[in-house]
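Q&A log
Question type: sequence-to-structure
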Amino acid sequence: MIEFYGNRVIDPVDMKMYDLKKNPPPAGEVADRCIKRESDSDDKVKETIAPYFSQLEGIVAAFDAAKVLKVKGTTITGSEEEKALISEVSKEVWEEA
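Response status: OK
Response body:
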């Protein structure tokens, strides 16, 4: 999540979002006026997701351990890691059915 939000910028003129690695703004005027929102800073993202991680153990404990699937995730759409994640989740879900 930090990488996803950390690479995000916005063009304040047309409010279009860009990813600096996967979909950078056009060079020149558009790129020059793009800004990073305060809410996309590493510290703000960590602060925003902290409550989730502080409650995660209790949430997982509320469910049958056999029904909790723990997988590594990625925010890189189309990556080999994402394909492996989807494959792993699909395998677990369909084997349970």
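Response note: The beta strands are 8-10, 17-19.
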